[in-house]
Design brief:
Elements lengths: L1 H10 L16 H4 L5 H19 L19 H8 L5 H4 L4 H10 L25 H16 L6 E5 L2 E5 L5 H6 L1 H8 L5 E5 L4
Parallel strand pairs: 2-3
Antiparallel strand pairs: 1-2
Helix pairs in contact: 3-4
Length: about 200
C-alpha cells in the first residue's frame, strides 16, 4: 500500500482505494481455498473494480499482467477475460525484464521491486483461508524483510512456517538462523528452511 501511494505521487496520478472484504458472507468458495480459488477471488475483486470504474465514467479496466505470466496456469486469468479486463503489458508482449528496464529508465523507484504474490498462495490448496493464518504469514514475511531477505516466500506446511529463499540467500539464512527463529516463532511454532531454492 505504501509503495502504491508513493508511486502514484511520483507519477502524478490519482488514487482511489476500495475496501474489499473477501471474508464477507457469500465468498465461501474463496475461503475454502480450492485449486481455482484465484478465479473466484478475481471475480470478486475485479468485479468490484469494474463496477466502480463504470460509476466513475470509465469503460475500460486494466491490470498489470505481463508477457512473462503464463495464462494457461492461472485460473485468475479466466476471470479477467470474462470481466473484459485488459492486460496491455501482456498484449504488447512486454516481459518482466523489459518492465524493469523501462521502469529504471523512467526513474521509477519500483524498477527492482521483487515480485510479491497474494498471501493466499502461501496456504496449501484445500486448507481453508482464515484471517489468523494469513496474518501469521504476513507477519512472518515482514520479519524476514526486516532481517534483510528479499524475493522469498513463507509457506504454511501443516503448523510450520516453511521458508523458501533464492540460492544466493541460503548462507545468510543459516548465519541468521537464531534471529529468524526468534522473529517467526510468535506466529508459527515450527520454522523450517526449504533447501530447494525458490
Amino acid at each position: 500500500m505504501q509503495d502504491a501511494k508513493r508511486l502514484v505521487e511520483q507519477v502524478g496520478g490519482d488514487m482511489h482505494i476500495l475496501e474489499i472484504d473477501v471474508f464477507a458472507e457469500g465468498n465461501e468458495h474463496i475461503l475454502a481455498n480450492p485449486a481455482d480459488r484465484c478465479y473466484h477471488c478475481k471475480q470478486v475483486i475485479f468485479g468490484t473494480l469494474k463496477n466502480q470504474a463504470i460509476a466513475d465514467g470509465f469503460s475500460v479496466v486494466i491490470d498489470g499482467t505481463n508477457a512473462s505470466d503464463d495464462a494457461d496456469d492461472r485460473p485468475g486469468m479466466k476471470a479477467l477475460e470474462e470481466l473484459s479486463v485488459r492486460s496491455p503489458l501482456r498484449e504488447a508482449g512486454i516481459t518482466k525484464d523489459e518492465i524493469r528496464r523501462l521502469s529504471k529508465e523512467a526513474g521509477l523507484f519500483t524498477w527492482d521491486k521483487p515480485s510479491y504474490a497474494c498471501l493466499a498462495t502461501r496456504i496449501p490448496v484445500g486448507r481453508p483461508l482464515t484471517k489468523e493464518i494469513l496474518y501469521a504469514v504476513e507477519k512472518a514475511e515482514d520479519a524476514m524483510f526486516a532481517l534483510g531477505f528479499s524475493d522469498f516466500r513463507v509457506r504454511v506446511y501443516h503448523d510450520a512456517a516453511k521458508i523458501q529463499l533464492p540460492a544466493n540467500q541460503m548462507s545468510n539464512a543459516l548465519n541468521k538462523r537464531t534471529e529468524i527463529k526468534e522473529a517467526i516463532k510468535p506466529y508459527f511454532p515450527i520454522v523450517l528452511l526449504d533447501l530447494e531454492e525458490r
